């Protein structure tokens, strides 16, 4: 009876007859380690980590490229006003602001607030209005008469529009009376006593005697657009 063939020194400990040879070059050894060790054990961690990094990178990029619009304004009314309803007004603002300087297209944004005094949505809109008023990047406001006392009845905060030739409320030179404007009627302020004001910068050192001429041109457009 023949003796069983003893395994040689290169035999696999579990009886495998063929063993993948260890790569000779550094590049081959790296490929071997990456495929048989790293990728085998850490594949899903790597994929999930890459997905998380891509998501975070997307949000960081979105924050970095986001810019402040060239002009923002607010329309606040007890009547229903939405951002969609003021699209025509936003388009006119873009045309006005694009007509100054280089003539490049201006990025304008209108905030529509339905400030109904009833319900939690109305309270949220009033809170939002209070937040926008303290935002120094927003100076132009159109609003219902009932909001005057609460938010817009402080002369020193707003520019004198009477001295600039606009129709104002008697005794309130900062308060332009835009009631009955066909343009405002179309966005939902039909039959509503409404006003417009231009707020001064909060930093007193930057206060000028007249507002940005583009703001005045926009106010004129509200009066004159049929």
Report on the structure:
The chain is an alpha/beta fold and 226 residues long. The protein has a domain at 72-224: D-Maltodextrin-Binding Protein, domain 2 (3-Layer(aba) Sandwich), CATH 3.40.190. Helices cover 40% and strands 14% of the residues. It has six helices and six strands, in the order H-E-H-E-H-E-H-E-E-H-E-H. The protein has helices at residues 26-65, 87-98, 119-133, 148-151, 182-189, 213-224; strands at residues 71-77, 108-114, 140-144, 168-169, 172-177, 194-198. It has a six-stranded mixed beta sheet, sandwiched between helices. Strand 1, helix 2 (87-98) and strand 2 form a beta-alpha-beta unit. Helix 2 packs across helix 6. The longest helix has 40 residues, at 26-65. The radius of gyration is 34 Å and the shape is elongated.
Secondary structure layout plus pairing:
Elements: H1 26-65, E1 71-77, H2 87-98, E2 108-114, H3 119-133, E3 140-144, H4 148-151, E4 168-169, E5 172-177, H5 182-189, E6 194-198, H6 213-224
Parallel strand pairs: 1-2, 1-3
Antiparallel strand pairs: 3-6, 4-5, 5-6
Helix pairs in contact: 2-6
Q: Report how far the terminal alpha carbons are from each other.
A: 114 Å
Shape: elongated
- Structural Rg: 34 Å
The top level CATH class name of the domain at 72-224: Alpha Beta
SS class: alpha/beta
């Amino acid at each position: 009876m023949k003796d069983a063939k003893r395994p040689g020194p290169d035999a696999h400990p579990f009886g495998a007859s063929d063993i993948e040879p260890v790569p000779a070059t550094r590049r081959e050894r790296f490929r071997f380690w990456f495929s048989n060790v790293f990728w085998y054990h850490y594949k899903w961690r790597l994929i999930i980590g890459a997905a998380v990094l891509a998501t975070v990178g997307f949000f960081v990029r979105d924050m970095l490229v986001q810019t402040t619009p060239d002009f923002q304004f607010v329309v606040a009314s007890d009547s229903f006003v939405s951002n969609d309803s003021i699209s025509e007004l936003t388009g006119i603002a873009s045309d006005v602001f694009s007509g100054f300087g280089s003539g490049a297209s201006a990025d304008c944004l209108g905030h529509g607030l339905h400030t109904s005094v009833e319900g939690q949505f109305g309270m949220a809109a009033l809170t939002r209005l209070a937040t926008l008023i303290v935002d120094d990047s927003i100076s132009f406001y159109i609003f219902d008469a009932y909001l005057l006392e609460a938010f817009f009845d402080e002369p020193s905060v707003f520019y004198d529009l009477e001295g600039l030739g606009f129709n104002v409320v008697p005794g309130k030179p900062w308060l332009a009376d835009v009631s009955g404007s066909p343009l405002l009627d179309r966005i939902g302020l039909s039959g509503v006593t409404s006003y417009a004001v231009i707020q001064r910068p909060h930093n007193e050192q930057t206060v000028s005697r007249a507002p940005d001429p583009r703001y005045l041109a926009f106010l004129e457009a509200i009066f004159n657009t049929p």
